[in-house]
Design goal:
Order of helices and strands: EEHHEEEEE
Structural class: alpha+beta
Strand order of the largest sheet: 1-2-3-4
Number of strands: 7
Shape: flat
Distance between the termini: 35 Å
Radius of gyration: 16 Å
């Protein structure tokens, strides 16, 4: 809870985002997150490891982790947490492979590409 994080002063929280952050950067009033989709609700699947539905969902999640479906770049407002946009990436970002500099966002991907997005 917010009370436990006394060193932080935040105004919003997303309990279960639909992207697993492999790379994240805060630039001015925007938060950029990139990674694979999170397609499994672990709480819902708890105790169902022998179910076909569980196995199918875990196989789908594993495919996202491996980069078989690419990934997503999302941008959020720093002030209120509103999602401002999302684009699909052909490849997953490299771990911590994102930086913002001089009005541009750079992403290094697992396939060795360097992507540049400008305002």
């Amino acid at each position: 809870s917010k009370d436990k994080l006394s060193a932080l002063d935040y105004q919003w929280i997303h309990e279960e985002p639909d992207v697993l952050a492999k790379a994240m950067v805060l630039a001015n009033d925007r938060l950029f997150i990139a990674g694979p989709r999170d397609v499994v609700d672990e709480k819902q699947m708890w105790g169902r490891s022998n179910d076909k539905d569980f196995k199918d969902k875990m196989a789908e999640q594993a495919a996202w982790f491996k980069g078989e479906h690419g990934g997503y770049l999302q941008v959020y407002s720093k002030g209120d947490g509103k999602k401002l946009g999302e684009i699909q990436l052909d490849s997953l970002p490299a771990f911590d492979g994102m930086i913002a500099a001089q009005g541009a966002l750079y992403i290094v991907t697992q396939d060795g590409s360097v992507l540049c997005y400008r305002k």
